[in-house]
Amino acid sequence: MARYKPQERHAVLVAVVLSEQIEPGSFAFALDHLVDHELDFSALDAKFNNDEVGASAYDPRVMFKIVLLAYSQGIVSSRCIERACQRNVQFMAISGDSQPSHAHIAKFVSTLGEEVKALFAQVLLICDAQGLIGRELFAIDGVKLPGNASKERSGTHAELLHRARRLDKAAEKIMRLHQSQDTAAQQAHGQAKREARIEALRKEAARTREFLATNAPRLNRKGQELKTNVTDPDSAKMATGKGVIQGYAAQAAVDSAHQVIVAADISTSGSEQAMLLPMVEQAAAYGKAHTLIAADAGYHSQSNLSQLQQRGIPALVADNQMRQRDERFRDRDRYKTKDPLAQKMPTGQDKAIQRFGPKDFEFHGDNTCTCPAGHKLTSFGTWYTTASGLRYQLYEARDRDCQVCPLRTQCLKTPHNARGRQVTRFQPKADDPHDPIERMKRAIDSQRGRHLYSQRISTVEPVFANIRHNKRLNRLHLRGRAKVNTQWHLYCLVHNIEKLANSGWRQ
Question: Are residues 142 and 164 in the same domain?
């Protein structure tokens, strides 16, 4: 029988040279050299005034190294970073065997503020010096990330007040149930649990009322009240492909040459239209006059395209019908894999009926049109105008025609109603060759435009995939726009420093 040397699993003391644990070519090596020899931390040094009195502080350079190394390895929790500094040799090496507590780490990240933007700009200058910024195309996109707040605590002031009253009623109901117990033994059973639940409900109600008393309603440009979150007022409810989240929209502008992030920001709204011009302005410091801006349909608007045209900025911003105009995607629905659960309705609910729309009606030149059942609808010939300037006509069917029509359930929203069907016909807008939207359509539909725009996905999407999946940023852990923006810039710094390390910088 073969004999093998014994294996020991108990603790051993090993002599480790910390300076040898950071290998050239690695992210840790690039980060260590960058912080010690390239970046200016004077703004962070100015925050400390303990040269004569007070306890010694952790060097902000050390804290910066620790946080970015942790983020590069998918470690987000400050407690996990604390344990890494105590047990991980690489963290010991890069920090000089410093062991800050989780409280120090969390405070450092949350108080960085504007200093992180200056460090981000310094790293970009180094990336530019290494030739990692090509300046041919900047792709702008955003990703919606859940925040550190519950969407159940969001609503208008009226909705939040209603929620506070419901919480009080729930607490009173539990109290009455507790007082209605027959015997002392029954009262003692589960008493502590019920009292804790009552206290929690009343505390949450009081917290909501305090928020309503100290915060004015948020209004949009139209004067309509927006939903506000009690825990994080800066966050917003956003619709995603996986449902509604309470969080922020992280924005990035990425250079197509080496996928370096040249601009980063945080949006507190699910709409991306308002972020296009600010991102263009941020990225302009690293671009040239010919640098092309590429963005998806989420940034498309009349105002944005007009501003880009007036400033002479070359751009390709898609619209919602771009794929429909492209003959390459004409048959895309034919090859789509259908989800068997896509049309599945909850138990007890019928499937939504696909009702006839204006496209199912045949319009004629004599102020009449024909419905799918062959009945005639008439119009007075009057043209109306919407607030946006679109002209339309209104057609109406006879009540008796709709009452006996076999297709009334597919046509009328309320088939039991005796009113006839009404259809609106909009007049197509006249093509204006100077209109920014029409100019953008022609540019993006050209062969060159399609070729250039196709580079957008391959430029920006891998960046978000790296940060979200490789670095495990599946949610934001801070509250408030300023602190969330700091965390997002730190992750963008990690991404750019990785690009430096992979390029062979300072090996």
Answer: no
